[in-house]
Write a structure and sequence with these properties.
This protein is mostly helical. Helix content is 57%, strand content 8%. A hairpin with a 2-residue loop joins strand 1 (95-98) and strand 2. The longest helix is centred in the last third of the chain and has 17 residues, at 75-91.
């Protein structure tokens, strides 16, 4: 529902709300399925038309995704990491997007 509002309302999820969702579902998940859904949801937010405020991508990546205990990562968590990694490094000019792959500069 929240993703629908962001997409159709042409809104971005801002830092405080993104942090709150990440803390509740990734860091302090009650069930492993909560964390799994969080990873999938944030991966979708970083799709072709991002729903996360582009100005916070780097900070969110550094302060949340890179700080998560590695043992908590699942396949969906690694995909989430990859999406943020690509987005942040393309924006920084460290990677160049080439159709379905990236190249280092």
């Amino acid at each position: 529902f929240l993703r629908f509002l962001l997409r159709d309302g042409q809104l971005w999820l801002c830092a405080p709300q993104a942090k709150q969702i990440w803390t509740c579902l990734a860091e302090n998940a009650v069930f492993p399925s909560d964390r799994e859904q969080c990873f999938k949801w944030f991966s979708k937010l970083m799709g072709d038309e991002p729903d996360l405020d582009p100005d916070i991508n780097k900070e969110f990546f550094k302060c949340n995704i890179l700080e998560l205990e590695p043992s908590l990562l699942t396949e969906a968590g690694i995909k989430c990491f990859e999406r943020f990694f690509r987005t942040v490094n393309i924006k920084e000019g460290k990677l160049t997007a080439k159709r379905r792959s990236c190249m280092m500069e």
